[in-house]
Amino acid sequence: MTTDCQTLREQLEFCLSHSECMVIHKKSANECLKKDTPGVSESCRAYAQSLFECKRGMMDNRNRFRGNKYFETKKYSSEE
Predict the structure, then answer these.
(1) Running DSSP on this structure, what letter comes out for residue 62?
(2) What gap in Å lies between CA 69 and CA 14, rounded to an integer?
(3) Which alpha helices (H) appear in 4-69, and where do they start and end?
(4) pLDDT for the residue 65
(5) 51, 55, 61, 62 alpha-carbon torsion, rounded to 10°
(6) CA dist 6 to 2, 9, 73, Å?
(7) 70 confidence band (pLDDT: 50, 70, 90)
(8) What pLDDT score was predicted for residue 2?
(9) 54 Cβ partners below 8 Å, 6+ apart?
(10) Alpha-carbon span 47 to 37, nearest angstrom
């Protein structure tokens, strides 16, 4: 993965590693991101959606010369 989506990936990892789903219930990241899994905040789900859109944007030929969209995010917010 290129550096375009690396920051989003790191933020998602940080958010999930501090979520109730992984800490208390000891589930994997994939299990925690399933649709109706309790213990995952909306911000983690938003990071997952942003990462998906970033990866999809890398494959979009319309962005080939312009580059991928820049996603404005805060580095490791302490809202959790």
Answers:
(1) G
(2) 22
(3) 6-17, 20-23, 29-32, 42-59
(4) 63
(5) 10
(6) 7, 5, 12
(7) low
(8) 55
(9) 4, 5, 8, 68, 69, 71
(10) 16
- List all residues 6 or more positions away from 11 whose beta carbon is below 8 Å from its beta carbon: 47, 73, 75, 76
**End-to-end CA gap in the chain:** 27
State the average pLDDT over residues 21-50: 88
The residue assigned the tokens 């909306």 is: 42
* Rounded Cα gap, residues 11 and 59, in angstroms: 21
Report whether pLDDT(17) > 80: yes
* Mean pLDDT across 47-74: 72
Question: Is residue 80 over pLDDT 70?
Answer: no
Residue 31, both tokens? 């299990």
- Least Cα distance to 3 among 49, 71, 61 occurs for 71
